[in-house]
Design a protein that fits this description.
mainly alpha, Rossmann fold, four-stranded parallel β-sheet, about 55% helix, about 5% strand
Length: about 290
């Protein structure tokens, strides 16, 4: 416990320094009521006090329980917050794309979406949330603080210019299971710790259902993958699905470490298909 408390103090100090170096003193966080955003909000509350503001940005299908958890946490921590529903923007997008009946808010979810449509709506909502965060940041001279953990970043489980857009990310080097340890050390309410991780964009959506495996299965695999990459002096963001020979070698190494072929193939495909999300945009050099 002492080690993790020391780590928390270090993160908070670095967070404060990085914000100050950029010429800011205020920060804004998107607070969903899930463990990642709550942990980041707590770190920011400790580091910035009244200079932290939280935005609560529910979509049409967001759980009322998640919103109440976010409100309850912000209130208990004396974090100022604003609630802005992104449902009107989502409604316009769905109507334009004929994904729901026009001009009838009560029927917004009456037409079931297929997986491609869900991804489109989810990405749109994630980008609407980030648009609100950056508008608040610009208006109040604040920096947007990210809430994506290392597991999500390695898996590419996030939206470019959505939840993957931020100035500083204090938990981006912590696997999901490590975020749970941070939450316990920070005395986050157990009800929040016990919830299924979710982007909260669709009814009954959960991260682990989307990914096909639990984080208890995923994180040891990701840690082994990172160790394998380090041993070969490779960087994840330098690779893609086109690097079949290297991926084959990595796959063999992971199989010898006891990971099942099904899990290995599923996660490696997802990871190397999405490595571009963790890179800065490519700027081509003229001839």
């Amino acid at each position: 416990m002492h080690q993790i408390l020391t780590q928390i103090e270090y993160i908070q100090d670095q967070l404060h320094q990085e914000v100050f170096k950029r010429g800011f003193k205020k920060v804004v966080v998107g607070l969903s009521g899930g463990i990642d955003s709550v942990v980041v909000a707590k770190l920011c509350a400790n580091a910035f006090g009244a200079d932290l503001h939280a935005l609560l940005l529910p979509a049409s299908s967001s759980s009322r329980a998640h919103l109440e958890d976010a409100i309850g946490f912000a209130t208990a921590q004396n974090i100022t917050y604003t609630i802005t529903s992104i449902a009107p923007f989502e409604r316009l997008f769905r109507e334009r794309e004929s994904l729901s009946p026009a001009s009838d808010s009560d029927l917004l979810d009456s037409m079931p979406l297929n997986s491609v449509q869900k991804t489109r709506v989810g990405n749109f909502c994630a980008r609407m949330r980030m648009a609100h965060l950056y508008d608040f940041a610009a208006t109040h001279h604040a920096l947007v603080i990210g809430t994506s953990n290392k597991s999500e970043i390695m898996l590419g489980y996030g939206t470019l210019h959505g939840d993957l857009a931020y100035a500083i990310n204090p938990i981006g080097n912590f696997y999901k299971t490590e975020v749970f340890a941070l939450a316990k050390a920070l005395k986050i309410p157990q009800t929040i710790i016990d919830k299924k991780p979710s982007a909260d964009l669709f009814k009954n959506q959960s991260d682990e259902s989307d990914l096909g495996y639990t984080y208890a299965q995923i994180d040891p695999f990701l840690q082994a993958l990172q160790s394998t990459l380090d041993a070969q002096n490779l960087h994840l963001t330098d690779l893609s699905l086109a690097d079949t020979a290297i991926i084959g070698t990595i796959r063999d190494s992971l199989l010898t470490q006891g990971f099942s072929p099904a899990l290995t193939d599923s996660l490696l495909h997802r990871i190397f298909m999405n490595t571009f999300k963790a890179k800065m945009p490519t700027i081509l050099t003229p001839k």
